[in-house]
Specification:
The chain has about 300 residues and is α/β, with parallel strands linked by helices. About 15% of the residues lie in helices and about 25% in strands. The structure holds zinc ion. Zinc ion binds next to helix 1.
Length: about 300
């Protein structure tokens, strides 16, 4: 099974439209030893000729055009995209659904709470229900594996919150375990397991053990340090308070996952402020010398 990294940046992408941090500024000026990145997005082909999207990023249209395997074939209106799996209701993960509205039928897998937020509270998602059977919503079970797109999937509920746009009355009705999930993906045809954890506030002992058995771990590379987001104007929270384990420092992902040796370890969901985007930086060197890779758009993985 082929897994393609269509996008590797955190929300906003790199560079971000309204950001003039040293990374974004130097990238625009051609002074940074690094590459632009679109917002995090994965796709896999568990069934020959059919593709499953893992989330639906705001950059999805450009990501599809950059990936010939996702282009229409077999007829004037067609798409090999059959399934979309959602791991949260954040704009960064769902906005791309609105770009898939041109009378194409597909399935969306989401936790019951994510489905209710999108279909009952946000009328704009009505563009996906213009004809019977346009989109078929499937609940992701919390406590047992499920199958989609030729893969066996397992949700890993993460300690995180629902998006800030969800109303207080709605929040009171939702199960917090539905807010953000990580995902374990194993091809039904056989092969190793990929762990997808673009937003992980911590690594429990149980999660640590699961990661040891994986073939590939795509892990939260949002921030280098815990205080990095507090240097962004308007942000006062730490990385951990935002639901992201920082890469460096005591208990950071480099330290916490150092003993996880079996899988290929790749940072994804990299924020534009993160110094590892500069491939001449000390931070990038530390990450690489610690056995980690940094995801880039177009990266291809095989399970
Ligand atoms: Zn920036």
């Amino acid at each position: 099974m082929q897994v393609k990294v269509l996008g590797s940046a955190a929300g906003g992408g790199f560079p971000q439209w309204n950001c003039a941090c040293p990374n974004c500024r130097r990238l625009r000026e051609g002074q940074l030893a690094g590459i632009p990145r679109t917002q995090a997005q994965l796709a896999w082909n568990g069934v020959a000729g059919q593709w499953t999207l893992l989330n639906a990023s705001p950059d999805l249209r450009a990501q599809i055009e950059a990936t010939p395997e996702l282009w229409p074939h077999d007829g004037p209106r067609n798409s090999p995209i059959r399934d979309v799996i959602l791991t949260s209701a954040e704009v960064d993960q769902v906005l791309g659904l609105l770009l898939l509205r041109e009378f194409h039928s597909f399935r969306i897998y989401a936790t019951p709470s994510i489905r209710r937020i999108l279909t009952e509270d946000n009328s704009v998602f009505g563009v996906l229900a213009r004809f019977a059977g346009q989109v078929c919503w499937q609940d992701i079970p919390r406590d047992q594996p499920f199958r989609a797109g030729g893969a066996r999937l397992e949700a890993l509920p993460l300690p995180a919150s629902f998006p800030g746009f969800v109303s207080a009355p709605r929040l009171a009705e939702l199960n917090p375990l539905d807010a953000v999930i990580g995902l374990l993906v194993t091809p039904e045809s056989g092969g190793g397991t990929l762990a997808f954890l673009p937003g992980a506030p911590c690594v429990s002992a149980e999660l640590f053990d699961r990661l040891q058995t994986c073939e590939v771990v795509l892990f939260d590379g949002t921030f280098w340090s815990d205080d990095e987001p507090s240097r962004i104007p308007g942000v006062s929270r730490t990385a951990r308070e935002m639901g992201h384990l920082p890469i460096s420092g005591p208990g950071g992902s480099l330290e916490r996952l150092a003993a996880v040796q079996r899988p290929r370890k790749i940072f994804i969901h990299i924020n534009n402020t993160n110094p590892i985007l500069d491939e001449e930086s000390i931070e990038y060197r530390v990450v690489r010398e610690s056995g980690w890779e940094v995801a880039r758009d177009g990266m291809e993985l095989t399970l």
